[in-house]
Design brief:
By secondary structure, the chain is an alpha/beta fold. The protein has a single domain, classed as Beta Polymerase, domain 2 (2-Layer Sandwich). It is about 20% helix and about 25% strand. The chain has three helices and seven strands; from the N terminus they run H-E-E-H-E-E-E-E-H-E. The chain has a five-stranded mixed beta sheet with strand order 1-2-5-4-3. A two-stranded parallel sheet has the order 6-7. It is elongated.
Length: about 180
């Protein structure tokens, strides 16, 4: 018998109450929110429960919401997969914009190591307890986090591009 989303939701709300909220079905994936301080407890339950069996951490990614109130300016999204029933879930933990940090998932899933490092590298989210939280793609000397929305999409100081080649017409192009 396939694992139904109602079973997942009921087991989570019975165990964690209002620490898990906002359940919604999106494109055949059950999505919900987890209180950031409860992330490891909820993830461990999803992994170890004999019915749920979400034994594979597919992905971790960061999100920046600069227009949200400070307590919800960053989020970490986790995607997990139950291979036995071929069911996927997604949950999101919101973080404080002034101090975006959350516990590391590397104690449960070794594959979280590089995913957390990438999220740190691009968003500056601190994963407490990570065995070696350092940049993975950008230079170690870099002081900014380039996926934060406070940075412009393009470098205005570039002199090697001509907007005409990108289908953009500027006021200077008419002169």
């Amino acid at each position: 018998m396939a694992l139904e989303t109602s079973v997942i939701q009921d087991k989570l709300t019975d165990k964690f109450g209002d620490k898990v909220t906002g359940f919604i079905q999106q494109n055949d994936i059950l999505s919900f929110e987890v209180a950031s301080e409860s992330m490891t407890e909820v993830m461990g339950f999803l992994k170890d429960d004999p019915i749920l069996r979400f034994n594979f951490l597919t992905d971790i990614c960061g999100i920046h919401y600069p227009d949200n109130e400070t307590e919800r300016q960053f989020a970490v999204a986790y995607h997990m997969h139950n291979w036995f029933d071929n069911v996927r879930i997604r949950f999101k933990c919101f973080l404080n914009g002034g101090n975006p940090e959350i516990e590391s998932a590397t104690g449960m899933f070794l594959g979280a190591n590089w995913q957390e490092r990438e999220t740190y590298d691009f968003y500056g989210i601190i994963f407490k307890g990570h065995p070696q939280l350092k940049r993975i793609l950008n230079m170690d000397e870099m002081t900014s986090f380039p996926m934060r929305k406070e940075f412009p999409l393009e470098d205005g100081g570039r002199t090697d591009k001509d907007d005409r080649f990108f289908g953009r017409i500027t006021d200077n192009a008419h002169n």
